[in-house]
Amino acid sequence: MSRPFREARISRDAIAQNVELMRRLAPAPHVMAVVKADGYGHGAITAARAALEAGADMLGVADLDEAFELRAAGIDAPLLAWIHPTGADLAAAAEAGVTVGINSIDQLRRAVAAAHRGAIHVKVDTGLSRNGVARDEWAPFVDELAAAVGSGAVRLSGVFSHLSNTSPDEDRAQIAAFDEFVDAVRAANLEPGLRHLAASAGALDHPSARYDMVRLGMSIYGLPPEDHHRDLPLVPAMELSAEVVNVKRVPAASGVSYGYRYRTTSPTTLALVPLGYADGIPRHTEGASVLIGDQRMPVVGRVAMDQFVVDAGDHPVAVGDRAILFGDPRATGAPSALDWADAAGTIGYEIVTRLGRRVTRTRA
């Protein structure tokens, strides 16, 4: 059977290997594998199964739709979802055994009113100013939480927050704030359950932030969570490629793609790759390249909706050849997702999560 026209090959072995590596580098009593955003573009079900087999004992997703997708696939591992609209079916979450993140007094009240009676993890804002119980609500929130737990309306099984990864001092301030909230919970005669603050970057950089569980996201897909982690021996779990669909020889001074941002300087061979910004390829790329055969070749001209052009020079290229945009440089010599992120002025997270539905995910 022929390979797909546009393909993201996903390696479960790489995901498992990365989980095992992170468990050694950032040991904690428990590990959550974060598989939100369709497993950071790798496929949530594939990523979840690989991570669980490698020793993760909890899964994390953003919302209940993502959680229910995993349950429908037969994945029954402990599972936390932490972003909920006002109409979220918290009772259905409890029935499915999905732990919900509670981010405010209002959400706590809705859980009680919905006869939720399931497990909750309380998200506290320790300085990121996003989701989480705001500091000026800590005291009344803990009072209502104690009443809700005491009545059996909810079960408190965890307290969590998220680091900003801004600077060591600011991260330490968030750790101190987190400890302060946990102390307030205990002062109300409640057990906080699993305490978790550190995602991949925090788990690597701040051993004191590992608590009872670390949340591993980007690292398990083989990309460093921050620039200063680029030397870690993580294995990229995705290889993105497409079949070359057109090849032509052009003279010097030929304009390429919209706006002629690139003109050839000598006679050269151009290859057309059928991936564009509709597939998640960044429109603005300076210095991006692909691997065709054993040669890296530059992406030239403006990336279009469905296609981009590669300048192959005098290297042989034929219709039907595979152009690898990114993968594992150590294994194949291909560019990495970080190379594309650098070329686009963004981060590796965005490169792998933005791939569109025209790209077929396959198992490596």
Description:
- The protein is α/β, with parallel strands linked by helices and 364 residues long.
- The protein has 2 domains: 11-220, TIM Barrel; 238-363, Lyase, Ornithine Decarboxylase, Chain A, domain 1 (Beta Barrel).
- Helix content is 30%, strand content 24%.
- The protein contains 12 helices and 19 strands.
- The protein has helices at 12-25, 36-40, 44-53, 64-72, 90-95, 105-113, 138-151, 168-187, 200-205, 329-332, 337-344, 348-353, and strands at 6-10, 30-34, 58-61, 79-81, 98-102, 119-123, 155-160, 194-196, 213-216, 238-243, 246-250, 255-256, 262-263, 268-273, 289-292, 295-300, 308-313, 322-326, 360-363.
- The strands form 3 sheets. A 9-stranded mixed β-sheet has the order 11-14-17-16-15-18-10-1-19. Strands 8-7-6-5-4-3-2-9 form an 8-stranded parallel β-sheet.
- α8 links the parallel β7 (155-160) and β8 (194-196).
- α1 (12-25) crosses α3 (44-53) and α6 runs parallel beside α7.
- The longest helix has 20 residues, at 168-187.
- The radius of gyration is 23 Å and the shape is elongated.
- The two termini are 14 Å apart.
